[in-house]
Fold these 3 entries.
Entry 1:
Amino acid sequence: MLNSKLLKVLAALVLILTLVWAGSVSAAACTSLYLGKETTENGTYIWGRSEDISSRFSKLFTVHPAETHEPGERYQSSTGFSWPYPAKTLRYTMAKDSFHNEGTTPEPYAEVGVNEKNVAMSATTTISRASSAISAIDPQISTSRGGLAETDLTTVVLMQAETARGAMELVAEIIDTVGAAGRESFTVSDPNEVWMMEILSGHQYVAVKAPADKIAFSPNITMHGAVDPTDTENVIVSPDFVKTAEDAGTIVRDENGNIIVSRSYTNAGTSVPGRMYLGYYYLQGVEAAKALTPGYFNYYMDPREGSKYTLYEAMRFLAYHGNPDDPADGKYVANPSSNGSAIGNANTVESHLFETRDDMPADLATVEWIAMGPAEFSIYLPYYGSQITETFENYTAYDSPSSAPDYRSMYWLFRSIYALCNADRTNVAPKVSEFLEAYQKELIRQHKEIDEIMAEVYAYEPLMAQKKATDISKAAAQQAYTVMTSIREEILAYNQNTDPDKGVFVPSVLNAPIDTKYTFNSVGGTGLPAYDIIKIQENDSHLIYNGNWGLRAQIGRFDEHVAKSSSQTNASVSFTFKGTGFSLISYKSYSQGTFDVYIDGVKDKSVNNYQPGTDSAFQQVVYRNRMLEDAVHTVTIVLTGRQDPSIGSNVYVDAFEIIGVLDGFTQGGTLVDDDVMIVDASPIIIDVLANDNVDDSAVIELISFNTATLRSGMVAIVDDGKKIKYTPDRLVACDDDEFTYTVDGETATVTLIFAEKMTYQENFISEDLKFGNNDHPQKTPGWGDYNLAAYWNSSAKRSNQAGDMVEITFYGTGIEIIGYKSWSRGQFEATIWNGGVPFTKTVSCFDPSYDTHYRASVYNSKDEGLALTEGWHTLIIKVRGDKETDALGTAIDIDAINIYR
C-alpha cells in the first residue's frame, strides 16, 4: 500500500502521486509473508501481510453482506474504475479504510478479507516500478481512464471469486479489458491452494501457484523469479507477457528458457533494503541475511533447516524490527516510529494472517487472524471469515478522525496502546509485551479446541456453525477490547504518577488467569442437540392433517414405501414437539408444488418442490431448521399451489425428522397455552390436552372467546370433553384471535394465528357473505351453483343478471376475488369503502386471447393501491349484465375470496 493513500484527493491526483512514489521501496512499507504447509509446525498454509500507511490512519473491520444485482448494474468506483456486477455477490469480511481518511469509493482499500466460498485475499503490496523501457511500451492506465487500482481490487474479487485460481483469472480479465493503474502484488487462497499475482505494468501480469515446500516474503519489491508461461496449471500470464519484454529489449531467460520476471520487467536495486535483510535474518538466520547482495531477489526460497515455523512466529514476523540481542548483525531498530527499514513499525494500521487447514471441512478451512494497529503491541484475533455475518461493533461504531480519536474504537485503542508502549520501552513496554505474548499463545491454544468442536457443530448444522462462529469471535473481540482498555487506563495512570520509585509498569491482568472468552461457554454452549433425532412417518398419530390428503405407495422409493400427498391449496399438516429442530422429507419433480412453513404461528420460509427434468428425487430433505430454542414448538406446513414451470401443485409428506420429543413434555403449570395455525375456512379439531400436564380422566369444562378480541368463529367441546372443534364463520384474516378453556378450575389460552392470506369458498356460510339482487329486491337473484373440477374445490357461483350483487364484509387489510376469465365472460362493478370513502371500478372478465382461465384473480384491492388498515371493510360486487364488444357473454363467476391479514 502506498503512502499516497494519505491524501484525500481526486482520482487523477492519486494516480499522479502513485506513479511518482511507486518506484521507491522506502516510500511504501507493507510486507507480505508466505509459509508453505510443508514448512509449518502444524502443516497449514500460513500467509498474510502488514498494512502500513501512517501512524494515525484508522481501519474498520466488518462484513459486507451478499447482494443481488439487476442485469447491467455495475460496480462504480469514485476513482473512475467500473466493472459489471454478477447477478449475486457473495458475503465477505474486509478491513477497509475509514471514510475519515479516504474518498467515496464504495469500500476504500478493503485490504483483506474472506468470502463465503472461503476465498481469502490480501491486497496489496506495492512492488517495484517497471523499467522505463517497459513503461514506454505498456504504461499504467490511470483510474480516470478506468484502470483497476488497489482501491477496489479486494472488493471486486471477494464479491464474486469462488476459487483462488478463479480470482486470478478474474483480475487477469479485468486488466486485459481496462488495464491496471498500479503495480501490485497480492495473494489469494482457497481450501486447496494459494496463488500470488504481480501486476507488472499497464496490461502485464504473472500469477503463480505457491509451492507447498517454500517460504516467501516481499517488502514492496517485484520478486518473482523464473516462470514457465506454458505451465498453465501453475502459472497464469498476460497474453503479451513475453512479447512486451521482448519488444522492450529487457527479456531475461534462465538456462531452461523460462522468463525471469523481475529481471525482465524492473531495474535492479542498488542496495539491500532493510526489510529484506530483516526478513532473511528472521526466517533463515544471520548467515543468509549477511549473504544478501544488491540486485534482484527471488520470492520463493527454501525454509530454514531444523525446526518448522509456528503460527506465533509468523505473527511476530510482522512485528519484527530487528534483534536487540545481536547488535552487530541483528540491525535492531530501537524506535520504529516511522522507519521503513523495520517490518514492524508505527505506520502499520493492521496486520493479518491466514491459516488454511487440510483437516477441517472446506467451509471452516481458513482462519483469519487480524490485529488492529501495529502488531507489536496488538492481539491477533481469530475469525472463521467465511462464516461470520458480523463483527464486534467497536470495530466500526466509534470510527473517528485522527484529530479526535475515540478510544472505544478497536483501531484507536490498539493504536494508543502502541504509542504508549513505544514511548517508554524501558518501563512500560516489557510487562505489556509479556502479557500480550501469554494472551496470544492462549488464543492459539484455545483455537485448536474450538476447531474440534466447531467441526462437530458444522457437521450437525452449518447454519449453527455460522452463528457460533460469529458469536464466539464477537465475544473474543469484546474481551480483548475490555482487557486492553483496562491496560490503557492503567498506563495513563502510571504515567501521571510522579513517584520516582514507582518502578516498572505491571498491568493488573498479568498475574491473573488469562480469560479470553474465546470459548463456547461464552456464547451459550455449542448448540449441539441434547436430544436424539427421531423419525416419524406420514401416518404418525402426532401429525394433524387438514384438507384433502391421500396415500401413495412407491416400493423402495418413499421412506418405508409410503407417503401422503395433497394438491389442495391451503391443505396443511401440523404437529407439536419439544426440542430444537426438525426436517421435512419429501419428493421433488417437475410436477411438484409449493408450501409455506410456519413455526409457532410465524412464517419461516416458502419452499418450492419443483425440480426440472424428467428425473424424480425421492426422500429429499426439502426443509430443515435446527436453530430453534429448546422449547415447545408448533409446526404447520401450508400448501400454496405451484409456480411455473411446474405442471402440478402436489406436495408429499414422506417423513419428519425431529430433534426433540413428541410426548411427555410440559411447559410449566398444569395447562399449557396453545398456538393454532388457521389456513382456510375448514373446521379443525384441536387437541388442547395433548400438551397439558393432566391425567387421562381430565375433561374440558368451559370454552369462551376473549371479548376484548375479534371472534372469528365458533368453538365446541367434542370427543367426550377431550378436544375442541373450531369452525370459522366470519371472513377474517387477522394477526390473531383467541379463546380460553378450563380444566379443573384452571384456564389456558388458545391463540388462533391466521395465514397471511385466508381463502374462503363462494359457498362459505357466514353473515359476511350475501348473494342477492340490489336493483330489484323482489326479483329472484340469478346466482346459480356450478360444479366443475377446474373451479376451486370444484364449485362456483355464476350470474349474468344485471343488478345481481354480492355483499362481502371482511376483516383484514385487503381482498381478492377469484373467478373465471374467458371469451364468454362479462363485466362487474366493484365498490369498496376505505375510511368511509367509496372506490368503484368496472372489472371485465373477458380474455381477448380466447383462452380460459379458471381460478383467476379478477379483482384485488391491493392492485388498486388501496392501503386498507386492519379492520372491518365491505366490498360490493354488482353484475352489470353487459360485456366488452368482442365478448360472447355477460356472466361472471365467483369462485373464492382471499382475505389478506
Entry 2:
Amino acid sequence: MVKLMVLCGLIDAKVKLVDNGFEGIVVAINPYLKQEEAMLRRLETYLTDTSKVLFRATRNQLYFREFIIVIPETWKALHYYENALDIQLDRAQIIIDHANPAYGDAPYVKQYAECGQPGLYIHLTPSYLLDDDVIHKWGQPQKTLVHEWAHLRWGLFDEYPIDAQDAEFYRYNGVWEPTRCTTEVEGSILNQFTSKQCSFDYFTGKPEGACRFFPRMKSNKAVSSLMFMQYLESIVEFCDDPVLSPQPLRHNYLAPNRQNRLCAYRSAWEVMRKHSDFRKASHPLPEDTDTTPKFRYVQVQPRKRALVLDTSGSMTGSSLSVMMRAASNYILSCIETGSRLGIVQFNTNATILSPLVQINSEADRQTLIKSLPRQADGKTSIGAGLEKGLQLLDSHEDSKAGGTIILITDGKENERPFLADFHHELQAKGVVVHSLAYGQRAEQSIAQLSKDTGGKTFFYSGRKDSTAFIDGLAATVVSEGSIRKPEVALPLLTEAGTVFGGSSLSGEFYVDSSVGRDTSLMVSYSHPVNVSIAGPNDVEIARDTHPEHYQMDEFSGVLKIHLSGLIESGTWVYNISTNEPQSNVLVSVQSKPRDLGSDVVHVTSWLPEETSIIFDPTQKLGVYAEVARGSAPVLGAEVVAIVERPQSVSLQIPLRDNGIGSDVIKNDGVYSAYVMARDMMGDGRYNIKIKATGLQGETKVVVGGSGPWSQALEVTSSGQRSELQTRNLERFQRVTAAGEFRVTGFPETFSEIPDNIAPSRITDLHISLFDPGEGKAVLEWTAVGDDMDRGKASRYTIHLSSKFDQLLASNANESVWTDVDDQLLWNLSNPQPAGQRESMVVSLRQLRDNETIFMGVRATDDSDNSGDLSNVVTVSRALELAVPIEHAPPGHGVPFYLKLLLPPVFMLIIFLCLILVLAWTRRNRKLDCDDDQEAEMAASIFSLDLTTMNYRSEGQYRQRHLEDVETWSRDSLGSSRESLNMPR
C-alpha cells in the first residue's frame, strides 16, 4: 500500500475562505487504486450534498465552493485534467485510500492536537464511495462528511463514548442517563446482542454491560448534535450553549465523552465561534444561496525542482565544501528516479549552472554533481537566485507553473533584488520553497517565505556532530506530497563523527523486512576514507573485493555504496578508516520499500505552524511524529527528538503516545512532546531531528479492532470501541527532520528563568469501582509530571461540589476536599512518575440518597504551580436499591422453620402480584398492543422502569413509548435504508 501523507499545521493555510465559501480543498487518491470514473462522479455528488448540509449546520454561514481532485500519475489522462502543482500535491484535506486496519471502511479524521486545532486529514475508502451497503452503515454520507469536516477544520471531538474512560451511561441525581448530546435524542435502552430490554444491576440499577442506547430512527424530535448520532434523519445542527441556547440545541455537558473531556465541557458551537472562519463569516447568507461547489481535476506530473545555492563571499572555505557534500548526497541518494532537477547559484548575481535534467540513471546524477558550484565570492542577492529558480522551473515545456525550490543560504541579503521582490510571484505561480538556513546569521525572512508557499524550513548549525544538513535536504523529498511514492528512499540512519588515522569508526544499521530494495550507504568526508560493510549471512563488501558497489566523487567528498536489488533484512555494520590524521564524516543510510505497493514503516514529523517564538517562561512548543506501517498505527516505538541548541549541546526529548501532556489521544501512532522554556539556551535558531526505533517484543502494529481516532458513528453502534488488535513488529530504524524554530528575548542567564510551568491537566480520570453500601469509590488516572508530562508532580488535590457549574468555575481553593483519611492523604502527597497509573480509594459516606457529587483532580508541582482541573466524574447514590435487603439486628437470628417457609411464601406473593398486574395491564392496554409489549411491561416489575429513566427534559423525567425493538434486529436493519433516504 502506498501511504497517503498529509502534514498538519497547513490545513488552514491552504484552504481559503472567500466570501463564506471554502476554496482549494484538495482530494488525493492512492495511485494503486483502480481508475474508477464512477467513484469520481459519486464523490462529486456526495460533496455537493455535503455543502448543502454544511450550509444549514453553520446557520447559512459557510459552504464548499471549490474542490481540487488530484488524479494519480498512473491513471489514464483525460482532456479536462490540468497539470497538478506541487503545492496541490503536498497538502490534501481528504484522501481516498485502502481501508485502515483499525477502521475498515469507516470515514475518520486523524486528530493529534488539542480542542479547536485542525486535524490531519479525512480518510475515505473506495468502498465507502461506491458500495451503497457500506455507505448505509454510517447514514447519509453528506451528514457524515460534515461530521468529519468539523473534526478536521474546527477541532471538534466526538460526543458519543469512544475512550476507555467514557461510559455508555452516567448517573445524575440517582437516575441513569445514556451518554448523548443533546438529551432530546429519543430512544430505548436495549441489549445490543438480543435487541430485547436490558437487565439492571441488582444493587445500583445500572444497565448491564451489554446494554446500549438505541435512538428512535423515525420521527425523532432531536435536531442536534451532528457530533453525536449524525445518521439520524432529524439531526441537522451542532449543539450549542447549555444554558442560553434553545432547548433542542442545548449541549449536554454532563455526558462522559471526548468533546466534554478535551474541550472543557464546551459545546460544538462554543468551540466553533472562536475559529477564524466564523469571524470572517459573521453574517448569514440568504436561504436560497447556491452552495454547489466547482470541481477541478489535476493530474500528478513528475516533480521538478530547482536547487538554489548561496555562493556569496560568506560561503568561502569549509562552508562551501560542506554544502557541496550535502548537495551531492541529496542528488545521489534522495531524489527519486523520473523527477527533474536544475541548479542555480547566486551571489551578487545569479547563474543557472544546470538546466532541468530528468533523472533516469546514475549518469544523470553524476552530470548534476559535476554542475555544482566550485567557488564562492561576492554579495548576497537571494532575490536574484529566486528569480533564476523561477526561470528554470518555467523552462519545462509541459508544465510552466508550479515546481519546488530548495533554497540554501548562510547570510543576510545585501544586494538587490531582494527576496521580498519575488514573494508574491512565487505564491501566484504555486511554487513551493523549502529553505535551509546555514548558520545563525542566515536571512530571517526565508522562514516566512517557506511558510507562505507551503514549504518547510530547516537549520544547520555547522557543528561537526550535526546531521541537520543532510536530514533537512532528505526531508524535502520524503515529506513531499500527500502520496508517498515507492521510488522515494526512506532514511534509516544519519550519524556524524570523526575518524582518526590508525583507528576506525564503526556503527550499525538495521534493515527491516518492509524495506531493503536499492539500499545506499553514503559517507561524506572532509578527507578521504575507506569504508566497508558487513551484513547477515557473513556478507562482506569492501572496495577491493566489490568495486561495482562503490562510487566516489573526490572533489565533492562523497562516497556511495549502492546495494542494488534486494538485500537481507537484519543488522548491518559499517567500518570507516582513514590514512589522514583525521576526517570528519557524515554517514547516512537510505532504503526503498521491498515490494511496490506494500505497507512500509515510515515516520512523518512536524512542528506547529508558528515557529517564531518570543521567549516566555511558560513557553511550550509541540513536537509531533507519526509512526505507521501503511496507514496502521505503530505502538510502543522508541521516538526521540534531538534538539540542536545555540551555545549548548544537543538535548534529547522522548516523544510519547500515552495520552497525557502534549499527546492528546493515546495509542493513535502519533508521538508527542513539548520543548519547554528551560530546554532553551539562548536566542537563535533551533533544529529538531526525530529518531524512531522499533523495540523487539515491545513495538506492535495495529491489525484490527477499533482505533482511537475520530471516526463516524455506525448506525448499529452507540459508540464504544472494541479493543485494538495488534501484532508484534520487528526492530526498525527511521530518521527524519521535523524542522526549525527561532527564539528571541531569551534572558541573559539561565538562572533567571522561573519555574512557571504547571503539571498537565489530567484528562482520563474515571471511577473504576463504586460501592454505594460502603460509600467508597476508586478513582484512577494517569499520573502527570512536574512540568507538564515530565518528572513527578508534588501533590494532588481532589475537588468536589454538588453543582457541576460551581466546580468548573471555582478557584483552586473553594472546592478542595479536605475531609480525607490518612491513607488517602498520603497517596495524594506522593504522586507516581508521569505516565504511571494512579489508583486511590475515597470515602463518600456523606453522600445522601438521590444526591450527585461532581469530582475532579488537580496536580501541583513543588513551585506551587497547579495544573487545570481534570475531567469531571460524577458519583451518585440511588434513592433506593433495586431490591431492598433486610438486615436482622445483632443476636436475633431467623428461626429455622421460617428459613424454610419464607422463600416459598415470598415467591407465592410475587406470583399473585404478577397475575394481578398482568390482568390490570391487559384491561387497560390498547387493542393494538402486541403480546411482546405486554411481556415487557410485566418484566419491568422486576427491573427498573427504563421508560421513566431514559429521558430528561428541563429537569423532569417523562415516559415515552418504547420503539418496536424489531427496528434494531439484525434481520431488519436493512429496512431502515428508506428512512435514511440513502442514495442508490
Entry 3:
Amino acid sequence: MYAFLSFLVKLLSVVVSLVVVGVTYIKWSHQYWSRRNIPFLPPSVPFGNLQSPLKKTYSIGFHIKNIYDEARRRGLKHCGLYFFASPVYLLVDLEYLKNVMVRDFQHFVDRGMYYNEKSDPISAHLFAIGGNRWKNLRTKLTPTFTSGKLKTMFPTLIECVGLLLNAMEKESVQIDVKELLGRFTTDIIGSCAFGLDCNTIQDEDSPFRIYGKKVFTSTRLRMLKMTLASSFPTLGRLLGIRQVSSDISDFFTKIVKDTIEYREKNNFTRPDFMQLLIDLKKENENYTLSIDEVVAQSFIFFLAGFETSSTTMTFTLYELAKNEEIQEKLRDEIFTVLDKHNGEITYEGVAEMKYLNQVIDESLRKYPPIPFITRTCVKDYNIPDTDAVLEKGRRVLVPILGVHHDEEYYPDPHRFDPDRFNEENKRARNQYSYIPFGEGPRTCIGMRFGLMQTKVGLVALLRKYRFTVNPKTRDPLKMSSRSFILTADGGICVVIAGLTNYFHNCYQYWTNKGVATITPRFPWGNANTFLPQGLVIGTLSKKFYDEFKQKGLKFGGVYILTRPNLVLVDPEYIKDVINKDFNSFGERGVYHNAKDDSLSVNLFTMDYQEWRNLRIKLTSTFTSGKIKIMFQSVVRCSDYMVQALKTSLGEDLDIKEVASRFSIDVIGSCIFGIECNSFQSPDAEFPRMGKRIFDFDSWRSFKVIFSMTHPRLSRYLGVTVNNHDVQLFFRRIVKDTVTAREGNGVTRADFLQILMNMRKSTNLTLDEIAAQAFVFFTGGFESTSLTITSALYELAKNPEMQDKLRAEILDKCGGEEMTYESLSEMKYLAQVLEETLRKYPPVPTLTRRCTKDYTLRGTDVVVEKGTQVYVSILGMHRDPEYYPDPEKFDPERFNDDNKKSRLSFTYLPFGDGPRNCIGLLEKFRNHSTEQKLAGVRFGAMQTKIGIATIVKNFRVSVCPKTKPIEFNPYSFLLKTFNKVYLKAERVS
C-alpha cells in the first residue's frame, strides 16, 4: 500500500512538473512578438488566441474575423497572434496584404499547410506543397483552366444541369438546396476530374457523395489534431497525424488507379483534368508524376470544386430568396441574354451576364468559402515601415472574411447588395479588399472553373424556379464550428414556387405549336413591365414586334403571365385578322364585369353580338350631319381656350394641361350637355374625375393585365378596373341629367340624348347608358388631348411646318370664323394630324380575341379559340420599312402621292375593319368633297379645331423647360408622363 501511494505521489509530481514546464514554455513563447516590438493581441494559456476546442462557439473563420475586428479597433496595421505556443503573424492593412501575396511573394511562396506525404500521401497536393515542387506542378496544370479547355468541359456541365432540373421536378416544394447543390457539383467534378458518372443527383447514397461529405465532417478531436499539426508540423509528421482518414484515401486512390489502368490499357483519352495528370505521369524529360501525386491532385481538385462551388450557390440562393427584387432583376437579365442565344445556356451567353457576376461577387464577399488563407515566410523578411524582421518559418494569416466584412470597404457589410460590384464601385475600391480566391501567383488555380459551374447552376435554376425562404431556415444563418470551410450548420431550406411546373408547361405552348417565341420570365411571362427596368406598358407590344421583325418573322408567340398571345407582324396577316376574317376575331378581349363595374360593359369591351347590336344603332350618331350640329359647341370651347391662353402669353405653359382642359370642355358639352368651363374652374368635379379615369399605378395596371388573362377568375373575385369613386360619379351624372331632361321635357343635340332616345325602343338601363357615355368620354377626352399635345410639341420644334400650317389655316378661313367646311379643306392640317397619330398613336396596341379556331393563311398553325391577338400599332408606325427615319416628324409622308404608294394596313391609329373606333377618323377612300366631309368624324374634328385654333392665334415655341416626351410606365395609352412646356406668343 505504501509503495502504491509512493508511486502516485511520484506520478503526480511528474505531471505537475510537466505542466509547470509546459506553462512556463508557453508563457515564454507568448513573449515572442513583444521581444520583436511587433504589436500583438494578448493570448491565454494554453490556447493562445484560439478558442478552446472543447467549447467552440464560432467557426474558425469567424473567430479569425473577430480577431481582425479587434486589431482594427486598436488601429493596428498588423499584429502578432499565438496558436497554442506557435506565433502567427496577422495582416490587417491592405498594403501589407499586397506585399505578402504579390509584391514580396518570393518571401511567402509556401502556404504553410500541414501535409504528411509519408503517412498520408493524398495530402501532398498542389494546395499544400511549396517551393519549386509547387511551381513546377502549377506551371504544368495551368493549361487545364484556359478558356479553350473550359469550353470543352461546358457540355458536361449542361448534362449535369439536365439531371439537376429533373431532380428539382421530383423534389417537394421545400428543398434543402445545400444538399441538392452538393450532389450537383459532385457530379460535375466527378465527370470533369475523373471522367466518371457519379450519379449523386439521382442517388444520394453514391460513394462519391458519401466520401465527399466525409472529408468535410470534422469532430472536435479531429479539429484539435489538425490545429496542433498545423502549429507544430514536424511533431505532427513524427506522430503520423493524417489530414485525410485512411478509408477516404483508399477510396480515391482506388478510383484514380482504376481509371488510369482502364485508359492506358484501352488507349482511351478524354478532355478532362485526369487526362492531363496521366500525360504528366508519363516519362518526361522535365517533370514526371508518381501515382500518389496523381491521386493527390485529383483529390484536391475534387474537393475544391465540389464544396466551394456548392457553398457559393447555396448562399447565393439563400440571399436571393430573402431579396426577391434582386432575384427578379437577375432573372430578367438571364432571360434577356438567353433570348439572344435562342433560349440556350451557352458559354458565351453566361459570360455576358454582368449582373450575375455582381450577385456572385457579393455572395463571395459576404460568404467567402475559404474565410482565411495562410502563407509561410520562407526567408527572413523586413516588414515595411518598421525595423522588425519576420523570421523564416513564421506563419502568416490573411483574414479574408474580416476584410470582406470591414465597414471601411463595405458599408453596412451584412446587407446583400450586388451593386457594390458594379464597374463604378469596383474602380473606386482597393482591389485587395476583395480576395475570395486569394491573390498573386498562388491564387486559386481552379477559380474560373468554379465560377463557371456556379454560374451555370444558378442560371439553370433561376430561369425555371422562384425561391423564397423557408421558416425552417435560421435567419441569420449559424455557421458550422466544425469546418474550416465557411458553411451553414444544418441545411438551408428554401421554398420553390408550387406552380413552377404549371408555369413551365404553360410556357411550352408556342414551342409545341412550332411558333417562334421570346423566352418568358417566370411568373410575368413576357410582360416585364412589372420588373425593375421594365418597359412602358404601351410600348411592350412594340418590343415584341421589333424582335420578331428583326428575325424575319411574320408572327410570333408571347406570354402575358401564363396566357399565350399571338403577335402579328406582317400587314397581310393583320388584314386577315381585323378585316377579311373578322368573323373569327370579332371581340377585343378586353375585360368587363357587369356585376361589380357596370361602366366596364361598353361598346369598346362588349362581346361580339352585344357589340354588333349596339354599334349599328350608334353609328348614326357620327354622320356628317350630326357632327355639323356639334361643330359650334367645339368652336365655343376653343374660344374659351384662346381667352385663357391670352392671359399667359410669354409664360412657360404646360400644353398638356391646356389640351386636357379643352378636351374636357368639348366632351362634357357634346356627350353630357354639361358646361364644364374647366379653364375657369380646373378643380371642378367633372375635370377632376375625368383625370382620375387615367390615373394608373402599378397595382391598377397589374389588375388590368390579370383580368384580361384570367377574366373568369377576375369576375369571381370581383376585380374592377375603374376606380369606385369614378363609377359613382358617372352613374350619378347620367342619372341626374336623364331625370332632369325627362322631367322637364328638355332635349339637346348631344350623344346622351341619342342614348335616351334609344332607351325608349331598346330598354337600355341607366347603367347601360352610363357605360356608353363613359366610354365615349374616355375615348374622346384622353386620346384628343394626347394628340393635340404631341402635335403642338412637334410644331414647336419645327417652326417652318408651323408657319406652313398657319398660312393654310388663314387662307382657308379667309379672315372669317372657322367653319365645318373650311376645316375640312385644310389638307396640310390633315397631314400634320396623321403624322402625329403615326408617331404618337394614343392607343399603341390593338387587341382581338379569337372566337373560333382559325388556321393562319399559308401555315398549319391553328390559333385556338380564346387566344388573344396583338397588333402593335406603334411598332408598325415606327417600322423603317414603311416609314424611313421613323423618329423624324414629317407630314409629307401623308401627301396624296405617298399615301397611295404605301402598303395598306401599315397605318392604323384607330384600328381598321368593323371594330375600328366609331367616333374617330375614318380613312379617306377618295377625294371628293362629300367624302371628305363625311370623313371628318367627331374625334378628328375636335382635335383639328384644337390644333388649328392655337396655331391660328399663337406661335408656339420650345423653352428652356421643354424636355423630351416621356411616357407613363403604367398607362395602356401612349400617355406623356412629364409636363410638356411650350411658350405661346400672340400672332397679329
